[in-house]
């Protein structure tokens, strides 16, 4: 099994963390993983995307052209990457910020991630709403693995944010 996932959005939306969580979750389960970040020249509000490859066999290249899956958080990223999903692939998009402008050749699911993140009291948790929805569709990792990865990346400095992100993740699992 090899899965390629592209995650794209604005800087500050948690794009990179989402990719790191997926890649680290794979390593927790003894799989191979590569995370490749790409930033625009801006710090916050600029473009950001990352490529994640997860495999139970060796991974020979860290980059790919077309992905199995696309998780897209904003309209400019949707416009840029909507044609880079394989025909049998899957796109999960933030329906709060994106209007689909065509019927793609792959499977699509929209989630009002901004609205759901606000409902748990943390507007920055849109990435975890989408992660929950993504893993419901593609159950490659369970909640315990994801939370273990989140604790690793947040450490003691951001430990207070783990519970709200867990709520956002669980809310994403319900849509």
From TrEMBL:
Instruction: Name the InterPro entries for this protein.
Output: 2-oxoglutarate_synth_KorC, Pyrv/ketoisovalerate_OxRed_cat, Pyrv_flavodox_OxRed_cen
Q: Which PANTHER family match?
A: 2-OXOGLUTARATE SYNTHASE SUBUNIT KORC (PTHR42730)
**Keyword terms of this UniProt record:** Oxidoreductase
Gene3D superfamilies according to UniProt: Pyruvate-ferredoxin oxidoreductase, PFOR, domain III
Question: What's the source species for this entry?
Answer: Paracholeplasma vituli
Record-annotated Pyruvate/ketoisovalerate oxidoreductase catalytic domain positions: 11-172
Q: Name one Pfam family in it.
A: POR
Question: Where on the tree of life does the source sit, at the highest rank?
Answer: Bacteria
The record's section on SUPFAM superfamilies has:
Pyruvate-ferredoxin oxidoreductase, PFOR, domain III (SSF53323)
The name this protein carries in UniProt is: 2-oxoacid:acceptor oxidoreductase family protein
């Amino acid at each position: 099994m090899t899965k390629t996932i592209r995650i794209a959005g604005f800087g500050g939306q948690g794009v990179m963390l989402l990719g790191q969580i997926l890649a680290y979750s794979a390593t927790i389960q003894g799989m191979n993983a590569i995370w490749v970040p790409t930033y625009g020249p801006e710090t916050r509000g600029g473009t950001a995307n990352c490529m994640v490859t997860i495999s139970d066999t060796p991974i020979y290249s860290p980059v790919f052209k077309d992905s199995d899956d696309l998780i897209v958080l904003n309209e400019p990223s949707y416009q840029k990457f909507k044609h880079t999903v394989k025909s049998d692939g899957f796109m999960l998009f933030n329906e709060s910020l994106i209007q689909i402008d065509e019927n793609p050749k792959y499977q699509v699911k929209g989630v009002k991630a901004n609205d759901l993140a606000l409902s748990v009291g943390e507007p920055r948790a849109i990435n975890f709403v989408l992660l929950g929805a993504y893993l419901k569709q593609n159950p490659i990792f369970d909640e315990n693995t994801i939370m273990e990865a989140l604790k690793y990346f947040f450490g003691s400095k951001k430990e207070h944010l783990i519970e709200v992100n867990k709520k956002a993740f669980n809310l994403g699992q319900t849509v």
